[in-house]
Every structure is written in structure tokens, then in C-alpha cells.
Here is the input.
Amino acid sequence: MTSATHHRESADDEAHKELDERKAAILEAVVTEYIGTAQPVGSGHVASAAGVSVSSATVRSEMAALEQDGYLVQPHTSAGRIPTDKGYRFFVDHLTAPGVLGPSERQQVRRFFDQVHLEMEDMLERTSGLLSDLTSCAAVVVGPSHEQAAIRSVQLVGLSPRLALLVVVLADGAVEKRSVELAEDSGAELLAAASAALAREVVGHLLSGAANFAPSGDQQLDRVLAAAGAALTEMAMGEENDQVFVGGPSRLAVAFDAVETVRSVLSILEQQLVVVSLLRDVLDRGLSVAIGTEHGFEPLASCAVVVAPLSVDGFEAGAIGLLGPTRMNYPQALAAAHVVGERLGERIGDSLGRTSDAPASEPDRRGSPRKDGERRGRG
Here is the structure.
């Protein structure tokens, strides 16, 4: 299953087993129709759906049973039925494939990554827009922290006899600066020698591992290098490292009927820390799709979240997420998240000065991220 939350796994496994092939086909037909129309689905539509070869009367009986079991709900007495969160969960968990982007969408993705040659932040921002265009959902892209970028250049610039400015240019285009307090007066010649030594030691290496230097034999130079190393550590541990970009938030206005829901969701998307925590928590719980209250975030109880990790060299370097109503097109959203995530991961690897040779994560038959045959989850 895509869900790895222990408190509901056992109960849901038993409930899912209770659905025979006919009920499962009827539920799939209801979910598919409702995703496409946003209108309650009647037995006549279901009886004519592919894979459902029974009469309308039988469909009505089975839909009533599905409602009793909590998979469907009837919003009005005379209307058809719509899926519940439990119904969507069954649908997602039993997808025979994560979905496939159409030819025009695949071409759009291919053209985008063939043509986009931007610094990291611009690329991430435009990718969030691409995802939103592909899915009609709000899209979130969390890029790698700067500590994962290779150092392109480094220099110490004197500000006063005992104060210097460390300037570091990273492979992702970011420029980091830190003040460096020096223990003694240091002239331009010493700072130039320190800059040259720093460049030899750290250029081409990751910011997160660039703070330790071998003794040079010159005690005064080593003291300057030690101070610069402390500044590099401070850069790598900076709290502002997350790069978060949201694309297509305006699409939510047409996705929800209630104005208050739209206002609440837009408010959440403006809170960067909350968005990052939400995506990471969903991934940490072994989910690729969190529906309704599954993500545990009450303000988004009427939403579904599709999440995929960004992988570079076999390590997670960020995440992408899609946020929309629970009736979102899950197969399409999973396909878009996988394809765009794979291409973006490759491009991030190039931008960080590395080549991503590790295989990208592949969605399994239920849309759950899978890598090297292992599942992610608690316990």
C-alpha cells in the first residue's frame, strides 16, 4: 500500500480486502467519472463504464453497499454519489499504473528542460509553473539547500585590519557572504595568500564539507584559514537554505467551491516553513499521496497532496508537491510528479557540479515512490 501509517494500516487492509472485483470496478468508475466532471455520479453512467458489465439495478445495489462501507457518499437524496477520502484512497492504492502523460505533455516537459538554461532559483521557479500547467494544481518545488552545492570560487576581501569579508560563489549561482573576524592585523598580501589557499582546498567541493584545512606551516596564515573555515561552517548551517517555489496558486480558485477553503489554502501556501514541513512529513511517512486528513494538517482537510522526492546521485535533494482538491486526477498528477521530478533531479545534479548516475525513483504500481527495492516508512 502507499500508506505507511500504522494506526490505520491494519483496518484499511481488511476493508480493502472486502471489496470484490465488481465493487472495485464500480468504485473505480465512480471515482474516474467524478474526477472528470465534479458532478455526483449516477448508476446509469457507471453501468456503461468500461469494466462494469452489470445492470443499473445491480450497480445501484453495489453503490449502496459501498456507501454503507464508507467508500461513497450521497450528497443529496435524489443525486448520484461521490467518493469519500476512503474511496479515493482505495482508488490510489489500486491503480494498475501511476498514469502516463499524453504526447503533448511529454513534449512540453522535453521542450522545457531542453530550453531552460537558468540559475538554480529561476529554474526551480519555472519548474513549479510547468507542473501547475501540466496538472491544473498548485505546485510546490523545494530545491536543494545551498550546502549541497559545489563551491565555484572563494575570496577574502579586507574590510579593516582585523575584519574581512568571505565571498563564496556556488555552482547553483548563489553568492554567500560572511564577515570574518581576524585575531591580528592582516594585510592585503596575507588575505591574498589565504584566498589562494582556500581556493586550492575548497573549489569543486561541497559547501557542507569545506571547513577543515591541513596546516600550511605558516601560523598566521593558518589562523586566517581557521577563521574562514568557521565562516564556511556557518554558511553551510544557515537556516535560510531551503529554496521553495509555488506555481499556479490561482488555479485553486476554480478547484474549490467554498471561498473560505481557497483563502485558507492560499494562506498556507504563503508559509514557506509549513509547506516544506508538510511535504517532508508526507514523504517520511512513506506516502506519495496524502488524501484529506491523512496528512494530518487540518487546514488542508479538503485537499490532496501528491509528493515526489528529488534525487541527485542517489540522495534526496529536495521535493516536489502538487496540491489540489481530493478529486484531483491522481494518475496524471503521479505521472507528472515522476517525470518532472526525474528531469529536474538530473538538471539539479548538473547545476550542483555533479552528474547524477543513480537511477531515479520509479513509482510502483500504486504510485508509491520505490528505490532499490526498498520501501520508506516508519518502523
About this structure: The two ends are 15 Å apart (CA to CA). The mean pLDDT is 81. DSSP finds 13 helices and twelve strands in the chain.
